[in-house]
Specification:
Blueprint: H1 3-29, E1 38-41, E2 63-68, E3 78-84, E4 90-92, E5 125-132, E6 147-148, H2 150-159, E7 167-172, H3 175-179, H4 191-194, E8 203-204, H5 206-215, E9 219-222, H6 234-242, E10 247-250, E11 264-268, E12 277-279, E13 281-286, H7 290-299, E14 303-305, E15 331-338, E16 343-351, E17 357-359, H8 376-389, E18 408-415, E19 433-434, H9 436-446, E20 454-458, H10 461-465, H11 477-480, E21 489-490, H12 492-500, E22 505-508, H13 518-530, E23 534-537, E24 550-555, E25 566-571
Parallel strand pairs: 5-7, 6-8, 7-9, 9-10, 18-20, 19-21, 20-22, 22-23
Antiparallel strand pairs: 1-13, 2-3, 3-16, 4-10, 4-12, 5-11, 11-13, 14-25, 15-16, 17-23, 18-24, 24-25
């Protein structure tokens, strides 16, 4: 081979190498395009035998009370929760450290009013930027937190890209993955650190927060028990971030399942009035085109909140039919006063179906095939149901076992407001029934329902009747007592039809999916549960959902729970 031939061969070799490099780069860039999205749970399990609450006195311990179980007194499993915002995977918002403006204190400002019920829903999500700080795990004296510094963020930026507005910066140390265990082993998660028996959890220092604030980052997360380094930097770090309007996840887990960038991450939780923090459900979506679509929606502030604010003066739980059949009213429980913030830390005693909530299959179905000692009237309803719709079935699918992807999907809003006023007073108490024909008419107009869609029935009921006491009786009490028409609700025929279309989740902006007739309501819930379908009840603002929008709902991850408060939003 002469020199010219050698040069030509070398050029071809270089071209081939460059072509292969370009192919690999393009393939890497397009990785995930066309793939099905995967939902990843980043939430700690909440249960009495786990270290899910802050262990210091006087913070209340989490409790779940199975107030009623399926049997002669109840056709449903009914739970009551005692929970405060520092439970499990949780959300912090500015009033945790920023004082209200009227207090005129050094740390006062408008963000002192940015409670969990006023944070805009776009801020809950964004592109996950996972800062790997695993080298810090246990690298400190007992009772002391290893510090995540600005250098860790800069190193991430040098390897990937600068962090910016719209990102959710997540600090991954694998702390919760390693130490969140059932008690007594689980004392290592928080209690042993506070007792100076074990090294602290890694956390950012104030300078790191300042850097992120200057970058425009407004949402963070950590898989440590708190965003506050021990023993003496917890408050300085909190204030350094919260004064910029940041919110963040504490107690995330399973961050190892995320790529360094590119995934959509969010935290959703109940919308407590005046809450400086709140229990939540964190999850991410990886793969396909969906993550980028949702990231862009959050970045451009295209989000709508569909959940009502939870407050003791609002009619958020059913009073039932007849004396003694009411659900647990929503109560605020003050337990620790902060003089500087002039604010009580507080928890809540509430029914598991308070405000916007999940209806899992186990709500209306027994866990096994053992005979159920239903009341005679209910036994008659069951016989009638099974003759028409098949076996009632059994289920142990409680809230924590319901896959996150079941309660998220393309929003398909079916307007059934035409049913309002369609029943004569002589038939009350009754709810106008949403029919298969109405669903089919919607499909003829907008296109067929698709597998994975979330069907939302727009009744307009909650928007018109969810009022503070004493006017709140119009929501539940009047229709249940037969003094007003009930809210529109789907019957079991609609449930059967939607299951055939591949629908997993049915939602409504009415108090529930059952309606006021107990016989028909029970049949609807039996139909849902026996077909492994779930409900999301008690939405608001459904009339503001645009034609193309993605529905996101997540219930707090409580073990053995037959309901589950949460928050619903749409991104568009």
């Amino acid at each position: 081979m002469n020199r010219a031939q050698a040069n030509r061969a070398a050029c071809l070799l270089v071209r081939g190498f460059l072509a292969m490099t370009t192919f690999v780069a393009v393939a890497h860039t397009n990785r995930g395009a066309g793939e099905e999205p995967v939902f990843v749970d980043h939430s700690l399990l909440i249960a009495p035998d786990y270290p899910c609450t802050w262990p210091s006195e006087p913070f209340p311990r989490f409790a779940i009370v199975h107030a009623r179980t399926i049997g002669p007194e109840s056709a449903f499993n009914v739970d009551t929760l005692l929970i405060d915002g520092n439970t499990g995977t949780q959300l912090d918002v500015p009033p945790h450290s920023v004082a209200r403006p009227e207090l005129n204190r050094e740390k006062s400002g408008p963000l002192g009013l940015a409670y969990t019920d006023t944070i805009e829903p776009w801020q809950f999500g964004g592109e996950a930027c996972v800062v790997d700080v695993r080298t810090l795990l246990d690298q400190a004296p007992k009772g002391v937190s290893p510090l995540v510094t600005s250098e860790h963020v800069v190193a991430f930026e040098q390897q990937h890209r600068p962090v910016r507005f719209g990102d959710v910066v997540l600090f991954r140390s694998d702390y919760s993955d390693t130490y969140y265990r059932p008690l007594p082993e689980g004392r290592r998660f928080i209690a042993d650190v506070l007792d100076r028996k074990a090294p602290g959890y890694p956390d950012p220092d104030p300078d790191c927060m300042e850097l992120l604030g200057k970058r425009g980052v407004l949402t963070l997360g950590t898989d440590s028990a708190s965003m506050g380094p021990l023993p003496d930097l917890a408050e300085p770090t909190h204030y350094a971030g919260l004064k910029h309007g940041m919110i963040w996840t504490e107690g995330a887990t399973n961050l190892k399942a995320l790529p360094s960038t590119g995934a959509f991450y969010c935290l959703l939780g109940p919308k407590h009035a005046g809450g400086p923090y709140g229990e939540g459900r964190a999850f991410s979506i990886v793969g396909g085109d969906l993550p980028q679509r949702l990231i862009e929606a959050c970045k451009n502030k295209r989000a709508i909140d569909l959940s009502p604010t939870l407050s003791p003066n609002m009619p958020l739980t059913s009073p039932g039919i007849g004396t003694g059949n009411h659900r647990q009213a929503y109560l605020k429980i003050d337990f620790l006063y902060s003089e500087y913030l002039d604010m009580w830390h507080h928890g809540h005693l509430m029914d598991a179906m308070t405000g916007t909530h999940l209806v899992p299959p186990a709500y209306a179905l027994p866990p096994d095939s053992a005979p159920v000692a239903y009341a005679p009237e209910v036994r008659g309803w069951l016989e009638e149901y099974e003759q028409r719709y098949g076996p009632r079935g059994v289920s142990s699918l409680t809230t924590e076992k319901v896959p996150l992807e079941w309660t998220c999907g393309e929003a398909r809003v079916i307007d059934v407001r035409s049913l309002v006023g369609s029943t004569p007073p002589t038939r009350w108490p009754v709810s106008p029934e949403i029919t298969v024909e109405q669903v089919q008419a919607y499909e003829e107009k907008t296109g067929p329902l698709r597998k994975g869609d979330v069907v939302i029935f727009q009744t307009g009921y909650n928007d018109g009747k969810l009022l503070p006491s004493p006017d709140g009786s119009a929501l539940w009490q009047a229709p249940l007592a037969g003094k007003a028409e009930g809210w529109p609700a789907p019957g079991p025929d609609v449930v059967v039809y939607l299951k055939e279309k591949g629908i997993r989740c049915i939602a409504s902006d009415a108090p529930d999916l059952g309606g006021v007739d107990p016989r028909r309501a029970l049949m609807t819930y039996w139909a849902l549960g026996s077909r492994d379908m779930v409900g999301v009840e008690f939405l608001v603002n459904v009339d503001t959902i645009p034609q193309e929008a993605y529905f996101l709902f997540a219930a707090i991850k409580v073990r053995d729970c037959h309901g589950g408060p949460g928050r619903a939003i749409v991104l568009h």
